[in-house]
Amino acid sequence: xxxxxxxxxxxxxxxxxxxxxxxxxxxxxxxxxxxxxxxxxxxxxxxxxxxxxxxxxxxxxxxxxxxxx
Length: 69
Hints:
Layout: H1 3-9, H2 29-38, H3 43-57
């Protein structure tokens, strides 16, 4: 896991869709789970969404709180 990816979870926004403009770390779990079932987009965005889904699924979202400051 790249530490830079963790920082990007609290700075990069979703570029399209229902949650366009929302920070990836703030996406709801059911939306992330939908991507896990249907397939993550290719490229860096897909990697970030997959990482966020893993953190959310395992109850580790709180680990991002220090990075939000």
